[in-house]
Amino acid sequence: MIKIFNDLKNKLEEFKPIKEGVVTMYVCGVTVYDSPHLGHARSAVAFDLIRKYFEYKGYRVKYVMNYTDVDDNMINRANERGISIYKLAQESIALYEEMQRALFIKSPTVKPRATDEIPDMIKFIKKLDEKGFTYESQGSVYFDTSKMENYKGLFQKKEISEQDSEDDQFTQSDFAKDKKNIEDFVLWKKEKPGEPSWKSPWGKGRPGWHIECSVMAMKYLGKTIDIHGGGKDLKRPHHQNEIAQSESVTGKTFVNYWMHNGFLNIDDTKMSKSLGNFISLMDMLKNHSGVFLRYYLINSYYQRPINFSMDKMDQTLLSLKKIQRFYKNLNEYSVAKGKSGSVKGISEHKNQIEELKKQFLDAMDTDFNSPKAMGYLFSLINYFNKNIFIKKNQISNKIKEDLIEFLDGIDSFLGFINPQVKEDQEESGSIWKDRFEKLTNTILDFRKEVKSAKKFELADQIRDLLINNKIKISDQGIDYSWEIE
RNA sequence: GCCAAGGUAACCAAGUGGCUAAGGUGCUCGCCUGCAGAGCGGGUUAUCGUGGGUUCAAGUCCCUCCCUUGGCUCCA
User: Fold this and answer.
1) How far apart are CA A210 and CA A228, in angstroms?
2) What predicted TM-score, i.e. pTM, was given to this entire model?
3) Rounded CA separation A330/A263 (Å)
4) Which of A28, A192, A442, A475 could form a disulfide with A230 if both were Cys (CB 3.0 to 4.6 A apart)?
5) Which chain B positions have some atom within 7 A of a protein CB?
6) pLDDT class of A275 with cuts at 50, 70, 90
7) Which residues contact A353 (CB under 8 A, 6 or more apart)?
8) Does the ipTM exceed 0.85?
């Protein structure tokens, strides 16, 4: 049974899909005016993990993630660069999808673009208009939040008193005068010179920010969807407004479970270009593998903020290596043949393994608590190192195969236990890889001879040369193994 | 100012009422090694920001204060 922390109700709830065996999931995507940064990666990995975990548990997942390709940022950036917003979007989407591939993020089932959905948005606003939830002001169409009961209660923990609301500085906003209520939001924005626009019953203009998500979510997933996700910054007003307009149109619950991922800060500060601590994901991938970044992100509970800093990377990398090494050791482990092992011992090991597997899955079931689950994975590793790997033939082939199957299974959503698979996919057929391996082996075979002859000084020089070229050597007595750092 | 998120060991990070507060990194000792590293094993540190309160029982619930970060409306 999967439990989800529902942000709207602020509590942990049992997940019950609308349709048995199917999960409908909508996640607010990015505004495609720039290359992706670490914060985008965080959100993308968090919801990818959730999506894939559902699939691991046997659900069929319909996963929609939109691209916002028209808004002020888009228009400003396109004008700065002297290109169309369409071209800007194409470029940014390409980069975003490159990031997805690097982080082993499965492509969403549907990836709609706002500008392709404008006729549906106009229909949607018409319906809102017919039901009396809108008004026009200065050529734009607004949603009248006072027509909706409990609008202020959405995602709100504490009641704001009328007095506080009156005192807020934003009541002096330039746009406040166009609205009836300060919380009202724009559905259709009147055309401004030099901006892209579309025809509508209210004149030329473009859609407001919130409308696109409601329209696309309902179009592809239905009037009520199981899960809606996004960054914590979208809770209010974006998601609040999505609920308001969607439920006003349909009269039904829009979303059953709301989920929000925490921010990613850098050195205790928000990433921002003006502070110069903006980390582009493409730059990051030059020095760190996508597998590793994925692991780093999954090591935090999705709801919590991550405080990123470069010096944390090293300690995290070491723990990842431990997992990957375990997987390798397990595959190479000699199991008990016939009745050579102690039956009692084998059954004890089996019980311990089953218990830790169960705890791992329980942690994942409880709101996808990946770091907690990782704790149990390490307990499993430690149990093996301590009780099984020290001697041969401690477990049966069945136990070994079961565990490998389990690890391969969870790797379908973790994506970092067995990096070999992914690397092979990328690099298979490369003659350079083959040649490089042969060359390295030749050098190390030579070093082996040198060591046998006890010319240690020369052997150490060869070792240093290779290490300086990022080839990590592990000596086991006279034998060796190596890998690229 | 208002709103939101957070403050758990040297560092990272779980734990939201109930056995000795997961796990990782670091440090340290041992095994291994020609040596080093890597690896493996043992050991190691937490009055859970502060002060009160509720309870048989609180890191976990309520209140005070302090600190960090973010948001404050056609910015996402």
Assistant:
1) 14
2) 0.89
3) 37
4) A28
5) 1-6, 11-15, 22-26, 32-42, 68-76
6) low
7) A380, A383, A399, A403
8) yes
